[in-house]
């Protein structure tokens, strides 16, 4: 493809894409310039397809066909972010946000809204887009979206990821064009350095410096790799980018290839992400067909190609040297550094490895300049960060905010607070390598350095909100189970250390803890931190250390008083029946799996604690709230 | 991880495996890909299959076995016809996925990692399928079931049992 042809595609489809970026009057005006009266975007990300968004699309197409409507465009996009409300369907130019759609709802929307002269079906809209007075506001103006700034996710939920022409019209490959036609490799690296972009995978190493090291390494072959082995449980930022805008990653890898002098790239993706893998492969094939990957890209003489490699379920492969071993077809065990991958990496050649979200920031930096990018965020953490917001929070989903946004803004405004009137207890960031931010630090700005200072870390972007029903000892144990399971076993501090930490925590949650256990934990944690081979082992104690720092009294209660205030640790609970509330309905006795409850009809029942296995079935079955759990 | 089931791969499956090895043997780092393909053909990776791959690539069996046992996705045991996978990722865990797993185990009278005697179901736990908005979540084959409560488990499993009966 020539530069002129690329321009032609951009111009033909640009207005259609722009309709989706503007609402209210400007949107109407733009829509009238295209052949589509309305555009309907349905989320085809993993979250919404799991709640059956494909049935929504099928019904939409069927209903439109039945009514002979031909001027409505149906687009299957990536994630809109509000996964809790899936399947989601957005109608432009109004920006009407329909949530939790079923095929029946679709039929109603088509007949009442999408027909000529139709109007929005208010009852089916996401309640957040209807004000108290019944006025409808575009979704972009709701609290969830208003505080966000979408740079990495700029095209997610906007374009059809399986259509390269939509990606081009939305701006993908414009940066590659600019780099190949008007910048030297040094210009590119200087721009990246000046932007202050730091690795979004967790460690936060400056991306420009990584590229500069690899450029300085002399070798005939160099590699560009993408880390899409998103292993943190509860994190799905990278998946959403790959599912929503796979071309932005391919483009950025080609740009890095040009900058460091590499012609080949690998994307290492988790096999647990089938939709992302499929869309990436489609994107690679289309980019080949359009001459945006392969030989002589855009007639500039630059060659670059990309290949997908699938992971097979090993968390440690997120570590750079382990990931490269895995691509080479071996056990994914890390090795000591130096030599760093920029000198000796994949197949012993100089290699750069960046995370998906890092790649997603490259195009905007090249297009808008380093000065623009570094004006966003804080001086040492520039730009934005994507978080996968999960756990006990109303608006579970994907959010992107400028660095420096406070946790309070994320939880209370964007996240919509904690459901069921519960209290915010802590936010867990950084997954199994990270820590907790307690309620007392809720006004901490979220950036690399502030999080480190309070004993957590940015991590890749998983943010799990915990409420008063979460036991902090139990959550630390949960993460240690994970790291003990995922430790590759190569180095002793990690292999044995994680096991021993887990044993100590299990002992505490089972009510057998002794006071010196806390000291033992702290000592062992320090050893692991000092002497483990890779980040997995070095950071494995973090979930314990940070909960000990902020919730030490909970550990002490478990040990000294044999008490779990969140009522999670089974061994520490005891059940009893309040005789004044019990009506003697016998329901609990009939449902007790171990026959620990006795009593006659219409008489208060009692629980035999020697038999009770603390399963909690009696509480679930009691209609009178007569059963106490302490 | 001992193998306790007799391997019975067909000649057709073996031919497919040989074709895959032939196609990819010159690609650097091809072992992982071949193992993934082999598992797709046989459903698991018994020693017999690993031996064929090792011979085909000129590797020792211990190299291949080392890789197979390193990654959690590779299995030395056959899986059930319906593969149940309960998500124990953080978002699901704090929303009670352990109770879901217990209920599935109770309902099928097997433990996580095992396969029912009739070969109809096997249970595994997994770390985050990325559908955190629907937590707690479990997958049966490719289908995702979200916003689960323990009392929903029985009905869901029943559907797969019925499906099997109607097939017979």
Descriptors:
heterodimer, A: 630 residues, alpha/beta, Glutaredoxin, Rossmann fold, Ubiquitin-like (UB roll), 5 domains, five-stranded mixed sheet, B: 168 residues, alpha+beta, 2 domains, four-stranded mixed sheet, 7 helices, 11% strand, globular
How is this structure best summarized?
With 630 residues, chain A is an alpha/beta fold. Chain A folds into five domains: 3-139, Glutaredoxin (3-Layer(aba) Sandwich), CATH 3.40.30; 164-283 and 317-373, NADH-ubiquinone oxidoreductase 51kDa subunit (Rossmann fold), CATH 3.40.50; 384-467, Ubiquitin-like (UB roll) (Roll); 472-561, de novo design (two linked rop proteins) (Up-down Bundle), CATH 1.20.1440; 574-629, Alpha-Beta Plaits (2-Layer Sandwich). In chain A, the strands form five sheets. In chain A, strands 10-9-13-11-12 form a five-stranded mixed β-sheet, with helices on both faces. A four-stranded mixed β-sheet of chain A has the order 2-1-3-4. A four-stranded parallel β-sheet of chain A has the order 7-6-5-8, with helices on both faces.
Outline the structure in words.
The complex is a heterodimer of chains A (630) and B (168). Chain A has 630 residues and is of the alpha/beta class. Chain A contains 26 helices and 17 strands. In chain A, β6 (264-269), α13 and β7 (305-310) form a beta-alpha-beta unit. In chain A, α11 runs parallel beside α13. Chain B has two domains: 11-70; 82-167, Glutaredoxin. Chain B has seven helices and four strands, in the order ααααβααβββα. In chain B, strands 2-1-3-4 form a four-stranded mixed β-sheet, covered by helices on one side. In chain B, β3 (138-140) and β4 form a beta hairpin. Chain B starts with 10 loop residues before the first helix and ends with a helix. The mean pLDDT of chain B is 90. The chains are: A alpha/beta (630), B alpha+beta (168). The A-B interface holds A 46-47, 49-51, 82-86, 231-236, 239, 271-273, 309-315, 326-333, 347, 388, 390-392, 396-397, 428, 431, 462, 464, 466, 470, 475, 478-479, 482, 488 and B 28-33, 35-36, 66-67, 70-74, 88-91, 93-95, 126-135, 137, 144, 146.
């Amino acid at each position: 493809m020539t530069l002129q042809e690329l321009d032609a595609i951009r111009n033909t489809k640009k207005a259609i894409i722009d309709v989706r970026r503007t609402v209210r009057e400007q949107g109407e005006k733009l829509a009238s310039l295209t052949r589509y009266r309305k555009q309907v975007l349905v989320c085809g990300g993993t979250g919404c397809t799991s709640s059956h968004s494909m049935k929504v699309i099928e019904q939409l197409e069927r209903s439109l066909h039945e009514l002979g409507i031909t001027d409505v465009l149906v687009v299957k996009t990536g994630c809109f972010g509000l996964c809790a409300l899936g399947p989601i369907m957005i109608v432009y130019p109004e920006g009407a946000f329909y949530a939790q759609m079923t095929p029946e709802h679709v039929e109603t929307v088509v007949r009442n809204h999408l027909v000529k002269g139709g109007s929005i079906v208010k009852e089916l809209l996401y309640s957040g887009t209807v004000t108290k007075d019944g006025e409808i506001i575009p979704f972009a103006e709701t609290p969830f979206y208003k505080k966000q700034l979408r740079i990495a996710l700029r095209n997610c939920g906007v374009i059809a990821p399986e259509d390269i022409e939509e990606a081009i019209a939305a701006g993908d490959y414009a940066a590659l064009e600019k780099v190949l036609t008007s910048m030297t490799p040094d210009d590119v690296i200087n721009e990246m350095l000046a932007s202050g972009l730091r690795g979004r995978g967790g460690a936060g190493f400056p991306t420009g410096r990584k590229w500069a090291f690899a450029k300085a390494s002399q070798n005939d072959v160099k590699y560009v790799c993408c880390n899409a082995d998103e292993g943190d449980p509860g994190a799905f930022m990278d998946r959403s980018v790959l599912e929503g805008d796979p071309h932005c990653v391919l483009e950025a890898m080609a740009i890095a290839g040009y900058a460091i002098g590499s012609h080949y790239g690998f994307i290492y993706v988790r096999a647990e992400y089938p939709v992302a893998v499929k869309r990436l492969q489609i994107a690679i094939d289309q980019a080949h067909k359009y001459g945006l990957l392969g030989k002589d890209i855009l007639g500039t003489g630059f060659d670059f190609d990309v290949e997908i490699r699938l992971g097979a379920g090993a968390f440690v492969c997120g570590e750079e040297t382990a990931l490269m071993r895995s691509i080479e077809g071996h056990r994914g065990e890390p090795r000591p550094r130096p030599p760093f991958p920029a000198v000796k990496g994949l197949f012993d050649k100089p290699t750069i490895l960046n995370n998906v979200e890092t790649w997603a920031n490259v195009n905007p930096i090249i297009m808008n300049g380093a000065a623009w990018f570094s004006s966003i965020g804080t001086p040492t953490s520039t730009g934005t960060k994507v978080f996968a917001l999960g756990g006990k929070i109303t608006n579970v989903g994907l959010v992107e905010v400028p660095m420096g946004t406070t946790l309070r803004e994320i939880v209370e405004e964007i996240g919509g607070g904690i459901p069921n009137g519960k209290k915010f207890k802590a936010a867990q960031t950084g997954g199994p390598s990270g820590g907790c931010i307690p309620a007392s630090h809720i006004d901490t700005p979220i950036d690399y350095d502030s999080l480190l200072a309070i004993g957590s870390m940015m991590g890749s972007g998983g943010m799990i909100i915990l409420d008063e029903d979460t036991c902090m000892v139990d959550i630390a144990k949960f993460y240690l189970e994970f790291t003990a399971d995922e430790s590759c076993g190569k180095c002793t501090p990690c292999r044995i250390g994680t096991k021993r930490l887990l044993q100590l925590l299990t002992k505490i949650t089972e009510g057998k803890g002794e006071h010196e256990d806390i000291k033992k934990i702290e000592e062992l944690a320090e050893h692991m931190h000092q002497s483990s081979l890779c980040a997995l082992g070095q950071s494995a104690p973090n979930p314990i250390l940070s909960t000990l720092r902020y919730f030490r009294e909970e550990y002490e209660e478990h040990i000294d008083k044999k008490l779990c205030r969140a009522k999670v640790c089974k061994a520490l609970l005891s059940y009893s029946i309040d005789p004044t509330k019990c009506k003697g309905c016998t329901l609990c006795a009939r449902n007790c799996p171990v026959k620990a409850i006795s009593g006659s009809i219409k008489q208060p029942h009692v629980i035999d604690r020697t038999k009770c296995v603390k399963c909690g079935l009696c509480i679930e079955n009691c209609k009178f709230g007569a059963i106490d759990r302490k | 991880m001992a193998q306790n089931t007799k391997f019975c791969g067909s000649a057709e499956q073996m031919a497919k495996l040989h074709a895959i090895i032939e196609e990819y043997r010159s690609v650097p780092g091809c072992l992982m890909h071949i193992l993934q393909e082999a598992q797709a053909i046989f459903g698991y990776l018994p020693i017999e299959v690993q031996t064929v791959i090792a011979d085909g690539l000129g590797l020792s069996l211990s190299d291949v076995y080392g890789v197979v046992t390193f990654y959690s996705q590779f299995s030395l045991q056959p899986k059930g016809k319906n593969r149940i996978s309960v998500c124990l990722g953080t978002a699901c865990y704090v929303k009670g996925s352990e109770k879901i797993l217990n209920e599935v185990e109770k309902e099928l009278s097997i433990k996580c990692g095992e396969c029912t005697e009739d070969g109809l179901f096997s249970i595994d736990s997994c770390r985050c399928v990325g559908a955190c908005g629907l937590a707690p979540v479990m997958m049966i084959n490719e289908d995702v079931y979200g916003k689960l409560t323990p009392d929903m488990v029985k009905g869901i499993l029943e559907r797969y049992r019925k499906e099997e009966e109607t097939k017979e």
